Amino acid sequence: MDITTAVLAGVAVLATVSAIVLGVRNHRHVGAIVAAVERIGGSTPRRRHRVTALDAALDRLERSTAQAQRERSRLAGAVQSAPLGVLLTDDHGVVITSNAAAERFLGTRLGEAVAQVRVRDSIERAVLDRNAVSVEVELYTPVRAVLEVSAVPLDFGVESVGAVAFVEDVTDARRVTAMRRDFIANVSHELKTPLAALAALAEALAGSVTGDPAAAGLAERLRHESERLARLVGDILDLSQAEALTSHDEPVAIAAVVAAVAREMEPLAAGRGVSLEVAPVPMEARVAGDSRQLRSLVSNLVDNALKYSFPEKGGQPPRVTVTTTVDDAAVFIEVADQGIGIAESHQDRIFERFYRVDR
Predict the structure, then answer these.
(1) In the chain, count of helices (H) and strands (E)?
(2) Using an 8 Å Cβ cutoff, are 123 and 89 in contact?
(3) What φ, ψ does residue 317 adopt, rounded to 5°?
(4) 139 with 165: CB under 8 angstroms?
(5) Is 230 within 8 Å of 196 (Cβ atoms)?
(6) Each residue of 97-156: pLDDT tens digit?
(7) Are 259 and 270 in contact, with CB atoms under 8 Å apart?
(8) Between the CA of residue 339 and those of 103, 275, 290, 324, what are the distances in Å?
(9) Is the pTM of this model over 0.70?
(10) β-sheet bridge partners, residue 250
């Protein structure tokens, strides 16, 4: 290797390192340096080709570096302006960078110091367990606030390189949810008393018009509908309790739950011409839970099965079967019918509240 070639190689290495480390360079200056080297060592076609190739490579590197800087600035601007708090940490949980919203949520006051501890704990758990972690933090400051903290580990292959945490102020959303839940609970409680009185009056009326079949039928229908409305109010209360994640856990014998549902649904099954078959329930089928909510759950399943089972003319009545099995520490209650079923395209929405398949 002659001196000119060695100098050219040195210039290439120096320019490349400078471009990577400093993110800037001017290929015209490099070209001037190379031209000076050419004058010292003499010019040949081969050397001119090397200079041209070097200059072109450095020009491409400059464009790529500028593009990367623009993308980085655009991403940093988007993160900084986001209303969601964002923190990026290393694999030791040390915050590398954060945006303005995160700094606003996690200030230095007492309540926010508590949030800082919960955020740090969530990040450490995400890094150690390599799983996403989500917690809610209540700040009992002069203005009560609720923050939702989510931390996600950053993994490249088998190596954990840190985590990204998101902090969102959900105070208003939680306040609206609590107001709606309280409203539903209060209205439902207020309706229970007049509904009970209406059912009692309907029963008394049915007993006083035994000599008039038409009036007795209307009184019985009034009693049935008032009981149905009372059950609907109870379901609304159950929904409110479920949303509040409150229940009254106690030992529950599944046999008693299934038997109560069978007694409740037998008239409906007979009226629709459907055979309701309940398999014997194992005595060891016991769980810890809310007996009222469990009964409501099984009742809804059986009620839907009966409603969507249609007898065929001249054929056998459709069947709805209720089977209970015990497997290790779990109890399974299966309600099967011969009805129209639910199309596969709708099955992922079964547990979506108030969703109904249009047929």
Answers:
(1) 9, 10
(2) yes
(3) -65, 140
(4) no
(5) yes
(6) 888 888 777 764 434 555 677 777 777 777 777 778 888 877 776 677 788 888 888 876
(7) no
(8) 57, 12, 30, 20
(9) no
(10) 289
- What are phi and psi for residue 304, nearest 5 degrees? -65, -40
Q: CA-to-CA distance for 125 and 151, rounded, in angstroms? A: 8
Q: What percent of the chain has pLDDT over 70?
A: 75
Cα 137 from Cα 118, distance rounded (Å): 7
Count Cα atoms within 13 angstroms, Cβ side, for 62. Answer: 14
pLDDT digits (tens, 9 = 90+) for 187-240: 877 887 888 888 888 888 877 877 788 888 888 888 778 877 887 787 777 777
Q: What domains appear along the chain, each with residue ranges and CATH number?
A: 3-80 (no CATH), 82-169 (3.30.450.20), 172-246 (1.10.287), 247-359 (3.30.565.10)
Beta bridge partners of 134: 150
Residue 104 tokens read as: 């606003």
Residue among 353, 274, 271, 281 nearest 322 (CA): 281
State how far the Cα of 9 lies from the Cα of 64, in Å rounded to an integer.
21
d(CA 58, CA 233): 75
Q: Are 130 and 155 in contact (CB under 8 A)?
A: yes
In this structure, are residues 102 and 168 in contact, taking their beta carbons and an 8 Å threshold?
Answer: no
What's 187's DSSP letter?
A: H
